[in-house]
Design goal:
It is a single chain. The protein has 412 residues and is mainly alpha-helical. Helices cover 69% and strands 1% of the residues. It has helices at residues 6-13, 19-22, 25-40, 42-53, 57-82, 92-101, 107-126, 129-135, 139-163, 165-181, 186-200, 225-254, 260-274, 287-292, 305-320, 322-329, 336-344, 346-356, 365-379, 388-403; strands at 88-90, 282-284. Strands 1-2 form a two-stranded antiparallel ribbon. α9 (139-163) packs across α12. The chain is globular and about 65 Å long. The chain crosses the membrane at residues 27-50, 62-81, 88-107, 113-134, 141-162, 182-202, 223-242, 262-293, 305-329, 335-353, 365-384. Pfam families: BenE. Keywords: Membrane, Transmembrane, Transmembrane helix. InterPro entries: Benzoate_Transporter.
Length: 412
């Protein structure tokens, strides 16, 4: 269900003139930055889950290969198919869930649980059930969920400046100068000035890189009720609530008539296909989608899909050399990538805040419900292993149900 003007929807869905003609450096850079952001934070959750469960180096590398290559292929194909910047990534809350639960099961049982999660996600997504549920939620509430997901990234910039004032301060200065003089390349200016400053101050640590390709390991899935109950069901819930819902909301907020059945279905198929190599769950991304769908990617909404294609290509490249990438990131100064993510998401954060404060066709009480949604989402609570975006949306819906007043026909 679309939540934007017909003219915007038509513009977002118009046939592309061809990737070659639509290509732009700013959109390609947005895709690259999205991958850098994914590898600077979310990938660390995967590595921690692997460490906590005692996985071998080979299985850990295979896991990283699977989520990277699986995300990349899905990003590129869906972006080309829809001419929209479709951003797919691995489930961050799902990986966090596995930090404590993966070690309780054999790895083959865990792989079997991943397959079950993918099948359930495919069925729920392709039938449109998830999309219908999300479409019924008032727009300010879904926008507030998105704002709550993005807000923690941006507020970390100030702490990063205090921790590393020269490098991160240069990054913020580069971003502001870029926004003032070259808005489309503001993130590039931020990254370039930060790297230059780090080099001049000797903050880039020398590392030894192994140039060999990462070798994926195929694990035949086995199935146990314990693993399905302990991994599949919680993983399905946190992925749908914590990633797919904000990811779809991000695309709607950016002006795209996202086809939820197609996108959720494709993510489900990719999850099943790459599960035997260690991928736990693939889904729509919200944080990196904020980078790809922003005007800084390209002023023309119909040409931002190039960022999705670029992101997919870089994901595959990074996945093929996963060991090298992880080693290289260890050389980056503290706080630099955190701050890069924060400034890159400011535009998306502004848009989601703005949408959460507009009642539209809903009663004014929806604004207060959206604020409640935002507060709960930002809180980071995770009772029963279910992440805060789910509880934020639930709290906002419940609050609006209580606060709204009876009205005449057509009122919502």
């Amino acid at each position: 269900m679309s939540r934007h003007s017909p003219s915007t929807a038509a513009q977002a869905e118009r046939p592309g003139r061809g990737l070659r003609r639509d290509w732009s450096a700013s959109a390609a850079l947005a895709g690259f930055v999205a991958v850098v952001v994914s590898y600077s934070g979310p990938v660390l959750v995967v590595l921690e889950a692997a460490r906590a469960s005692g996985l071998s180096a080979e299985l850990t590398s295979s896991w990283l290969w699977a989520v990277s290559v699986g995300s990349g292929i899905t990003c590129a194909l869906m972006s080309l198919w829809t001419r929209q910047p479709v951003m797919v990534a691995w489930s961050i809350p799902g990986a966090a869930l596995l930090v404590t639960s993966l070690g309780d099961h054999s790895f083959s049982d865990a792989v079997g649980a991943y397959v079950v999660t993918g099948v359930l996600g495919l069925l729920l997504g392709a039938t449109g059930l998830i999309g219908r549920v999300l479409a019924a939620v008032p727009t300010p509430i879904t926008a507030a969920v998105l704002a709550g997901v993005l807000f923690p990234f941006s507020i970390k910039v100030a702490a990063a400046v205090v921790e590393n004032p020269w490098v991160v301060g240069a990054l913020v200065l580069g971003y502001l100068l870029g926004r003032r003089f070259l808005p489309r390349y503001a993130v590039f200016a931020a990254l370039g000035l930060a790297v230059l400053t780090a080099l001049l101050r000797g903050r880039i640590e020398p590392v030894a890189l192994d140039l060999s390709l990462t070798q994926p390991v195929l694990t035949a899935p086995t199935f146990s009720w314990e693993a399905i109950a302990g991994i599949s069901i919680p993983l399905l819930i946190v992925t749908a609530a914590g990633q797919n819902a904000p990811g779809l909301a991000m695309m709607h907020t950016a002006g795209y008539a996202a086809r939820d059945r197609l996108l959720f279905g494709a993510s489900g198929v990719a999850s099943i296909a790459f599960a035997p190599f260690g991928s736990h769950a693939l889904n729509l991304a919200a944080v990196t989608a904020g980078i790809a769908t922003s005007p800084e990617s390209h002023p023309d909404i119909g040409r931002r899909y190039v960022a999705g294609v670029s992101c997919g290509a870089f994901y595959v490249l990074f996945g093929l050399f996963a060991d090298i990438v992880v080693t290289a990131f260890s050389a980056v100064p503290p706080g630099m990538i955190t701050a890069l993510a924060g400034v890159a998401l400011l535009g998306a954060l502004q848009g989601s805040f703005s949408e959460s404060m507009r009642p539209g066709r809903h009663q004014p009480a929806v604004i207060e419900a959206a604020l409640i949604t935002l507060v709960v989402t930002v809180s980071g609570i995770a009772p029963y292993g279910v992440v805060s975006p789910f509880w934020g949306m639930l709290a906002g819906i419940a609050a609006y149900a209580i606060l709204r007043r009876p009205a005449g026909p057509g009122s919502r």
